[in-house]
Amino acid sequence: MSTLTLPAPIADYFAAEHDPEALANCFVPDAVLKDDGHTYIGVDAIKAFMAAASAKYNATTVPFALNEDGGIQVVRAAVSGNFPGSPVNLSYRFGLERGLIGSLEISV
């Protein structure tokens, strides 16, 4: 089985899955995150959302594919946790800026 090599800010994001403070350090200050029909702007809003989602769903994410699409890094990951439909494969569309995450859109 091959190991997936992710760009550093993306690898850091997945490694910090249950640590909102560490997750916040992966983003530029004015980053935008879109997930489940909601948009979170800025590190504080993203950190609050991630902390609440981690506590509620206790999800585990395992990235299994990486592709590039017009400058966006697209990661496919298997996600399992305390939510309807678990497990599910999700797409994470990362826009990188200055060595950090500038935008992230999570979708099915």
Number of helices: 3
* Rg calculated over all Cα atoms: 13 Å
Topology-level CATH name? Nuclear Transport Factor 2, Chain: A
Alpha-beta classification: alpha+beta
Write structural notes for this entry.
The protein has three helices and six strands, in the order ααββαββββ. By secondary structure, the protein is an alpha+beta fold. A six-stranded mixed β-sheet has the order 2-1-6-5-4-3. Strand 1 (27-35) and strand 2 (38-41) form a beta hairpin. The model has no long low-confidence stretch (mean pLDDT 95).
Question: Would you summarize the structure shown here?
Answer:
This protein has three helices and six strands, in the order H-H-E-E-H-E-E-E-E. It is an alpha+beta fold and 108 residues long.
What would the keywords be for this entry?
single chain; 108 residues; alpha+beta; Nuclear Transport Factor 2, Chain: A; 6-stranded mixed sheet; 3 helices; 46% strand; globular
